[in-house]
Design goal:
transport; amino-acid transport; 6-stranded mixed β-sheet; Leu-bd; ABC transporter substrate-binding protein; alpha/beta; 4-stranded parallel β-sheet; Leu_Ile_Val-bd
Length: 459
Amino acid sequence: MTTLRTRRGLLATSVAAAVVLLAGACGANAGSSDSSSSSSSASSAGSAAGSSSAGGDTSGSGGSSGSNAPAARGEITIGLLATLTGTTASDGQGAQRGAELAIKELNAAGGVAGYTFKLRAEDTKNESNDVVTAGVQNLLSDDSVKAVVTGYASTTNFEINNFARAGMVYILGGGTAQTAEIVGKDPAKYPTIWSVTPSYAQYGTGPVDLADQWAAAGTWKPRNKSAYIVTSDNAYSKGISTDLKAYFGKKGWSVVGEQTVPFGAVSDWGTVLADIRSKNPDYVVNTDYQVSNEITFLQQFLQNPTKSLMFLQYGPNQPAWLDEAKASGNGVLYNNLAGVIASDKNPETVTLQKAYQAAYGTSAVDPQAVITYQAVKIYADALKKVGDADKKTEIGQAIGASTTKAAGGTIVFDQQTHLAKAGDDFVPLQSFQIQDAKPVLIAPEKYAGGSFVLPPWFQ
């Protein structure tokens, strides 16, 4: 989660290649797991003319039992890179669930172009280069793998080059700044690489613009337009905090304090919070995206809160954060470019929520599940058009030309960066506030289900 996860400065290609060769020589395969596909009873929501639907609809990609059905061609594998263990394991579980659900729906509909599917998951653990490289090598060494999806894999997206050189279809979500940097230099070299998430640039502007709107409307009155930024020592968090600092300054704010904590678990925020309390800013922003860190930060802040708005990057999007925070989360602000559009005004959202409820007992669809679910469905639609799973370049080109109405918005790809397009009519930046222990969508107005209220610690 410039952010749902700016993640990732580009590693030198030679280093990445060397690690791949080393991993291959060692035969690393301990992080993989196969997940067999089974049928799902998810219903179809239909799709608009001229576009496909990735909101639980199986009609656009599935096969048919009729006489015109393509001949059975066997089972192929979709690879998954996900943090199945470690501090961000909840993200990995969500990513795995999304891919599994999409595959179940496709198989229940009879498959695509004569193919059925199974999932092979590789655990990227702590997102370190060696672990990710081993996972990439394992997937590329498996001839049955025809495409790979991920919410995010490494902290730099270096694996894009590995998959591009191998001609593998790779559909990802996180690290959009890094994806744009890698692909944008020569898009023609990356016909099989596409991101279902738009540029994270809005993460560096959205929180500031909303605060200015509330101040102008008199909903909230800043004392001196001061902000304090806390970040974590990783590319995703630092990229967002850098953009926010610049934009605060551009909009006439003063950043009165900055702190960077080491990447990983943080249990004691005492030093950071002491400085925040001494500066008493109007706005506190923490871009450390890890769920446990943002929970402890909030809990320790509330022991002696300042009258500051609080924005937390990404963490509150996770069901695990909401489950732990409960009412103590009331007033917290956050946003997302990767989850479902949190409104029944988007029919694909409703359909996916129903399918997720049936499969996993909750309608709270994990943002990482949305990414991988959409990625698998988009791949399947392209496979249907091309008809041959081994024609990966043609499938990649079909992906790039596609328009998909999905639970996260309408996905149309920018041909220069290979990112999804951003905007209220494409993939919108959604801004939320926790109210009564539940997330309330407060922007954009097109989908909003509520409005901003002062946090309870202001009382």
